[in-house]
Design goal:
This protein is an alpha/beta fold. It contains eight helices and twelve strands.
Length: 334
């Protein structure tokens, strides 16, 4: 498609521009006399602005017509892929459209052409498709590394962040089809895209089960078992998306917590007595993937209550649980 406008005949534009009027190009040619005695630069730019604008409009009309007739079947769902003329227009203006000008100072005749090479446009959008798929493939490789290191949450996050690339890639298939990429090549690209998506979805499905924890939490509230600590710690891990197993060999992490409470002081001011107690826990967090302790420490918290030492110890355990939550979140989610 080539459109020629102006006051002179088509054959009078530069002979080597004929190639841009052939089937492999889209173009718009403008020509006119410099009747206002503008500078050569300004006059050529004036013609060029019109040619660029006309070519962009022509392409948009073709895009609209093609979109009305075409749909691309992606994963069994038929959907129009034409969505972003703004993005496409930017590509045309910045990356794909080329221009040339010619001016005869004797006759003050000027010519301007804006053209788009269809094969170049195809390569541009094919490269964009390949870049999008490589981004997901790189995310898959990174996820595999994280999984081997025991960081399933990080692996899942990276993969989820890469998944929107498929929506962007699907739109790009519209453009390569519009600009005449052979159907066999389109099918090959689509097969590659579908294979990468299948692999990513399978990996995400496996990661949906979350991180598997084997936990042994023993706590004493003076001379009695304190099961509340185990319940609260499991609640924290569950909110993180973890699940549990009793077998260390089937887990990603092994957590051992051994805690106890001891009485502190009782302080009386007038008729009011305040009771204080300490809760202390030895915490070991072991990563099965690397066979090493990632965290090992003893933490202690103080609590107070006006009723008795038991309630003071419960308050101390509450503070201890909060710190345990921070430790577990930081260590296991990294």
């Amino acid at each position: 498609l080539c459109c020629v406008f102006g006051a002179v005949a088509q054959q009078e534009y530069p002979a080597d521009w004929v190639q841009y009027t052939m089937g492999g190009y889209l173009c718009d040619i403008q020509s006119d006399f410099n009747r206002q005695w503008l500078s050569e630069t300004d006059f050529k730019q004036q013609l060029l602005n019109v040619a660029r604008a006309n070519l962009a409009k022509t392409i948009k009309v073709q895009v609209s017509d093609y979109a009305a007739m075409q749909s691309i079947d992606v994963n069994g769902q038929s959907a129009s892929i034409y969505k972003s003329t703004t993005t496409f227009s930017t590509d045309v203006e910045m990356n794909l459209m080329e221009t040339r000008t010619h001016y005869n100072p004797t006759t003050r005749e000027g010519f301007a052409i804006a053209y788009l090479h269809k094969a170049t446009a195809c390569r541009h959008y094919e490269n964009e498709i390949q870049m999008g798929l490589r981004k997901v493939e790189n995310a898959l490789l990174t996820a595999s590394t994280y999984i081997n290191m025991g960081f399933k949450e990080r692996a899942k996050t990276d993969l989820q962040n890469a998944m929107p690339e498929f929506n962007r890639v699907d739109e790009l298939f519209f453009w390569v089809s519009l600009f005449g990429m052979p159907q066999a090549q389109v099918d090959e690209l689509m097969a590659h895209r579908n294979a990468v998506e299948l692999q990513a979805k399978q990996q995400l499905a496996e990661l949906q089960h979350g991180t598997t924890i084997c936990i042994n939490c023993e706590a004493q509230l003076f001379d009695t078992e304190y099961y509340e600590l185990d319940k609260r710690v499991r609640g924290i891990l569950s909110e993180m998306g973890c699940n549990f197993t009793n077998s260390p060999s089937q887990s990603d992490w092994v957590i051992a917590i051994s805690a106890f409470a001891r009485e502190g002081q009782a302080t009386t001011f007038g008729t009011r007595t305040s009771y204080f107690a300490n809760a202390e826990a030895k915490v070991v967090i072991y990563k099965m993937a690397t066979k090493q302790n990632i965290y090992e420490n003893i933490i202690s918290k103080k609590g107070g209550d006006t009723r008795n030492f038991t309630e003071a110890a419960r308050a101390a355990y509450k503070e201890l649980t909060a710190e345990l939550g921070e430790i577990l979140t930081t260590t296991i989610k990294q």
